[in-house]
């Protein structure tokens, strides 16, 4: 019998387990993969602020530090955001193989039990607690817990079975494909974003440098708008851009671009990270919110254990915390995403042309949209109240 069982040792789960264990709870963290952090289904970009909020930065899990971002419209108009204008959306490119393990290790150090190669196969709520069936190497057994934290990613079985979330529709998820490429000739001070319906319908392509001429080169497309697979779009992008390098890894994955869900809790259960569709609908970035959500879930679990109250109405404190932190931004960026995926390439070129060469005060989506609003208020009239 545990106070808390956390399913999934991504950033959300390990952070939740670490926080709950630090509060003195009896915690189990289970991860179905054999190694935490691999395969890396992520471009690994995160802002400095988001990571420094929780960790002392260790060079071991930083692959690269970037000082700016370059955004390209379909006609190659370039928008540059650079160091002097300082860093929000991307600052570090992590080495998640090492970072994710580091966070899980901190959870273990705080007292959590960590089981890898252990899948949660089923669960049921009964008599005020949750019974889980776990499986490792063909062996099945049961554990009980007062609180279950579902940090089991975008396809969260826990969220769907508990009735908290519904399966995402084809316009609520980005389908992604990514290569880790080596031998590239790029300026490693920047991350690169490529927009356009032809390149990436409903999404964008990216190059995030990882040092020594290597980079995550990937693409996200909205299945509802796409006519090919994400990998086919990625291959076409690489060919069109003339990106020359050796492919050393390939991953495919999905990112929720849902916006804000109403609640991430039910009796005895909290969802955190991608499981609660916490990723940003416009950038697809989900590590920062996953870490914050995991932290809040761990804190609220400790309060619930102290009060011996595991009801949904008590756990709604967790909703309040994550919504206060990043709920508004999820909602706002969902509106922006819906506006931008409607734009054709000619309009994107026009908007980019209007702000190319401008001094963007900060490296963030908000900074870009504010400039666009100044340049083309009529075109973006419906967005004016978002800022
Ligand atoms: C191609 C791609 C690029 C991305 N790039 C970025 C980026 O640059 N920056 C950024 O911030 N975000 C990015 N994201 C999003 C980011 O990867 C996620 O938002 C983030 O990993 C969410 O963390 P999480 O802990 O919620 O879930 P995950 O990291 O998905 O972890 C969930 C864990 O749960 C485990 N699990 C699932 N089911 C079970 C089960 N039944 N039993 C036991 N374990 C289970 C899984 O094995 C997994 O380890 C990208 C995503 C993709 C697909």
For the record, what CATH class applies? Alpha Beta
Profile the largest sheet. 8 strands, mixed
User: From N to C, what is the helix and strand string?
Assistant: EHEEHEEEEHEEEEHEEEEHEEEHHHH
Classify the helix fraction into a percent range.
25-40%
Secondary structure tally: strands: 18
Shape: globular
User: What is the assigned CATH homologous superfamily?
Assistant: FAD/NAD(P)-binding domain
Structural category: alpha/beta
State mean pLDDT (0 to 100 scale).
94
Report strand %.
25-35%
Global Rg: 21 Å
Bound molecules: flavin-adenine dinucleotide
Give the number of helices.
9
So, CATH architecture?
3-Layer(bba) Sandwich
Description:
The protein is built from nine helices and 18 strands. The protein is of the alpha/beta class and 387 residues long. The protein has a single domain (2-339), classed as 3-Layer(bba) Sandwich (FAD/NAD(P)-binding domain). Strands 1, 2, 8, 9, 10, 11, 17 and 18 form an eight-stranded mixed sheet that branches. Strands 6-5-13-14-15-12-16 form a seven-stranded mixed sheet. Strand 9 (119-126) and strand 10 (129-136) form a beta hairpin. The model has no long low-confidence stretch (mean pLDDT 94). It binds flavin-adenine dinucleotide.
């Amino acid at each position: 019998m545990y106070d808390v069982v956390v399913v999934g040792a991504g950033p959300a789960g390990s952070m939740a387990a670490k926080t709950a264990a630090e509060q003195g709870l009896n915690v189990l963290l289970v991860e179905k993969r054999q190694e935490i952090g691999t395969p890396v289904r992520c471009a690994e970009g995160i802002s400095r602020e988001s990571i420094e909020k929780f960790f002392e930065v260790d060079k071991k899990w930083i692959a690269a530090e970037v000082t700016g971002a370059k955004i390209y419209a379909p006609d190659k108009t370039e928008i540059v955001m650079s160091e002097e204008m300082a860093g929000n959306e991307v600052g570090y490119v992590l080495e998640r193989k090492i970072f994710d393990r580091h966070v899980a290790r901190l959870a273990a150090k705080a007292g959590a039990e960590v089981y890898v190669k252990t899948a949660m196969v089923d669960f049921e709520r009964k008599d005020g607690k949750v019974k889980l069936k776990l499986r490792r190497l063909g062996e099945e057994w049961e554990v009980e817990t007062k609180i279950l934290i579902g940090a089991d990613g975008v396809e969260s079985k826990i969220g769907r079975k508990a009735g908290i979330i519904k399966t995402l529709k084809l316009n609520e998820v980005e389908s992604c494909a990514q290569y880790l490429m080596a031998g590239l000739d790029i300026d490693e001070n920047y991350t690169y974003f490529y927009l356009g319906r032809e390149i990436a319908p409903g999404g964008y392509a990216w190059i995030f440098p990882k040092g020594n001429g290597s980079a995550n080169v990937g693409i996200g497309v909205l299945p509802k708008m796409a006519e090919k697979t994400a990998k086919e779009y990625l291959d076409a992008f690489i060919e069109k851009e003339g990106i020359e390098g050796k492919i050393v890894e390939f991953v495919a994955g999905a990112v929720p671009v849902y916006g804000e869900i109403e609640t991430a809790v039910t009796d005895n259960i909290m969802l955190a990270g991608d499981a609660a569709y916490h990723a940003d609908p416009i950038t697809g970035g989900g590590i920062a919110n996953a870490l914050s959500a995991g932290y809040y879930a761990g804190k609220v679990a400790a309060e619930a254990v102290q009060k011996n109250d595991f009801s949904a109405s008590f756990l709604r404190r967790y909703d309040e915390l994550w919504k206060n932190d990043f709920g508004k931004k999820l909602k706002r960026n969902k509106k922006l995403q819906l506006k931008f995926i409607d734009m054709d390439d000619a309009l994107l070129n026009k908007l980019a042309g209007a702000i190319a060469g401008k001094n963007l005060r900060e490296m963030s989506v908000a900074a870009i949209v504010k400039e666009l609003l100044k340049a083309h208020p009529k075109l973006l009239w419906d967005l004016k109240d978002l800022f």
